[in-house]
Amino acid sequence: MSDPMSTRTATISVLVDNEAGVLARVTGLFSGRGYNIDSLTVAPVDAEGQLSRINIVTSGTSMVIEQIKAQLDRLVPVHRVADLSLEGPHVAREMALVKVIGTGEKRVEALRIADTFRARVVDTTVESFVFELTGATDKLDAFIALMQDLGLAEVSRTGVAALARGKRTI
Amino acid sequence: MSAEAIQSGAEILLRALKDEGVEVIFGYPGGAVLPIYDAIFNQNAIRHILVRQEGGAVHAAEGYARSTGKVGVVLVTSGPGATNAVTGLCDALMDSIPVVCLTGQVPTHLIGNDAFQEADTTGITRPATKHNYLVKRSEDLARVVHEAFYVARSGRPGPVVIDLPKDILINPAPYAEAAPSHKSYRPRTEPDMDQIAKAVALLKSAKRPMIYAGGGVINAGPEASALLTELTRATGFPITNTLMGLGCYPASDPQFLGMLGMHGTYEANLAMHGCDVLLAVGARFDDRVTGRLNAFSQGSRKIHIDIDSSSINKNVPVEVPIVADAAKALKALLAAWKADATKVDSVAVASWWRQIDGWRAKDSLKFSQDMKPGSVIKPQYAVQRLYEIAKARKQEVFITTEVGQHQMWAAQHFKFELPNRWMTSGGLGTMGYGLPAAMGVQIAHPDALVVDIAGEASTLMNIQELGTIAQYKLPVKVFILNNEYMGMVRQWQELLHGGRYSESYSAALPDFVKLADAFHAKGMRATSVDQLDDVIVAMLDCPTAVIADIAVDPAENCFPMIPSGAAHNEMILGPEHEASGAAISDAGMALV
Prior knowledge:
The structure holds two protein chains of two kinds. By secondary structure, chain A is of the alpha+beta class. Chain A is 28% helix and 41% strand. Helix content of chain B is 38%, strand content 15%. In chain B, the strands form three sheets. Chain B has a six-stranded parallel β-sheet, with helices on both faces. Chain B has a six-stranded parallel β-sheet with strand order 9-8-7-10-11-12, with helices on both faces. In chain B, strands 14-13-15-16-18-17 form a six-stranded parallel β-sheet, sandwiched between helices.
């Protein structure tokens, strides 16, 4: 084990039965034991809708993250717990919808930056844009920070979806 | 249509319970569970024990489960029936007791409507149980019942709630046999043999070894206790037990150092502190055991066997984790120990034993009882005499306790040779546990001697269960160490809060002898040391339930004690010993 007291961020994917209350079990575990949730996504992932995948971004000491994984793993409806951060390279993406309100030069600048970030315009009026942007969390953070002075009005983010790279599966 | 196909949900429920081997249910009826009571009325296979409050039902089921190794079963109604059960569920969760609790629920179409006696039972009990279910479709009912029993008893055992809407109980439901395997919950039970090899190598290299065994050994069945005993004897190493582990190793054995932890023996705690190799089995390094974490057994390399991987490396980092059933791991460990020809450093271990014997000579549990007639009874002496007199009668004895000083004195002075004989609320520390738990034990072992070693304050928390004891003519003995204080609270106030005994005096106590009489039991009282033996003998001779009110020294404190925030080598010993231990710090005062 690495230094148990050093803090790290972990992206954990959990395959669970898609049943009532399963998300409450997971979030209740985090709140009840005082763990952090930086981001959380959940949706059914198989054709029959029997299984859901929960992706959690959390942070803590290595000892705490090992605890989180062990605690998740002993929940009855949990099939698999994978620590994507630890088990090898992975891709992690999230989507944001970003509303920017403004006119004139600021509006033009917002559109120019959006283009650089490969954000799509999914809604527009003469005074506003809604951009759709997909990417790693830090890319979204950077985009949103740049929009701050250009009329940023509202943000909606999905949280992180993540998969291991290569042929590995959960 | 076959008769089977038209069975109601309630009938299917009972059939599934019967197929799971259930013989006894502890319960209390109410509107939402009337269909189940109707089905119970129409059968004889399962016995229903009517408690006086739902909290008592869960503790009774815990006592039943802990003393038999079977799953305890509870049946309560919706709303307040379920909420009253919550404390017992938390208790069973903390102490890993297998319990299935059936709760009534309003009909499915009323759920969420704030209906009469509606509570969000699965929401409330989610963090209080190992798992819970709300049955919303009749076709799921039988499967869920089987699954609940599997979950309750598999892996690290625990309580499971099944919430049953009334319409599900009334409507016809199909039956289903138990599934051969669970789709997601399959706890690992077999040890990794590489880890076993590492553990043996480490144990063989020990100069100052120590074995620390807990309630997980008892949960793994009597075989695990037998294997632990065999392994300990084969190694010649010293062993200590946690509060929950008492009985998993014979207390009379010379290798046994007694209980460890906050009120553990001097030798057990110092051996934990000074050992160089520590084997932990079915124990979870909780704060009552470790004391100050950054001073806990700093010089030892640690092996930890536990069926729950989340118990490993939770509080204390260990070098050799072994996730497995305790019996299976101990069996593998014993075989590997015997197969390995490496010799233990017997000179070093012998010198370690000399050191331990030096600590033992301190006799940290010693107390002084004035034997002059009329002298006040020391609580430790009362427990010691109960133990000695009961032992001489060679009857099978089961002990339950409430929570507080009397619980610790019972743990220190009552010696257990076998597992499943000691029922106490360890993790949650639930006052009021002992009386209903004793009831559950007595139901499971009708001919055994079952004694609730109680405090006068705790036992009042579930005193209504004397009604149940009377109804079923259970010969439970309630042995009250009556010091007229919430003794452990008083002790902490004396040691940590300048002797300001805020609200810890047991004012306006009932006359326990008359109370016994009112509940059709026999009341007895001892107020001085010369009366004690007679009362104990009369209590044990009495064929019915007894409340023995033993007036003990109200000022007595429970020692040794590791104050909160202190380390194992900073124990406070009792007044029989020269000044010792750590001064209690302000930081310690903030801890529980």
